[in-house]
Design goal:
Largest sheet: 6 strands, mixed
Oligomer: single chain
Strand content: 15-25%
Structural class: alpha+beta
Helix content: 25-40%
Number of helices: 3
Shape: globular
Order of helices and strands: HEEHEEHEE
Length: about 140
């Protein structure tokens, strides 16, 4: 598979890093995410850690974006607290992001090797939920 790269949205990375630095406190909130909506807005969120599988920051940002009327997201990034930098999405988040936003770009990598790639490239041999839904018919 050839990786398609797109320009990195450094403003988005900094928005997530700022939230990680200023809003992540203790073990309940350790990751921040920022997403660029199609209209240019940046939406941010933090994870809600819980031993039962609380939502990752990427999933919280989907809900926060919808609550703000931003239903189309172009790019997303997650950043860890304690200056951990960009953290790639977990498997569950990759699948949810693909299902919600098949054209989404995800910022991954470290330091000066950051890159923005299509979410589908993070899931080889993808399962597309919409392709397997049965009609309620």
């Amino acid at each position: 598979m050839t990786t398609q790269t797109h320009p990195v949205d450094h403003e988005l990375v900094e928005a997530a890093a700022d939230v990680a630095r200023t809003r992540c406190r203790g073990d309940n909130h350790t990751m921040a995410a920022a997403a660029r909506a199609r209209d240019g807005r940046i939406v941010t969120a933090v994870n809600a850690y819980h031993f039962t599988g609380g939502p990752c920051a990427e999933l919280v940002v989907i809900g926060a974006a919808a609550a703000q009327g931003a239903h189309e997201l172009d790019t997303i990034v997650a950043v860890g607290d304690r200056e951990r930098g960009v953290v790639p999405p977990c498997g569950r988040c990759r699948q949810v992001l693909l299902d919600y936003f098949p054209a989404l770009r995800v910022i991954v990598g470290r330091g000066d090797r950051l890159r923005a790639v299509p979410v589908a490239e993070l899931l080889p041999e993808t399962y597309v939920w919409a392709d397997h839904r049965l009609d309620a018919g």
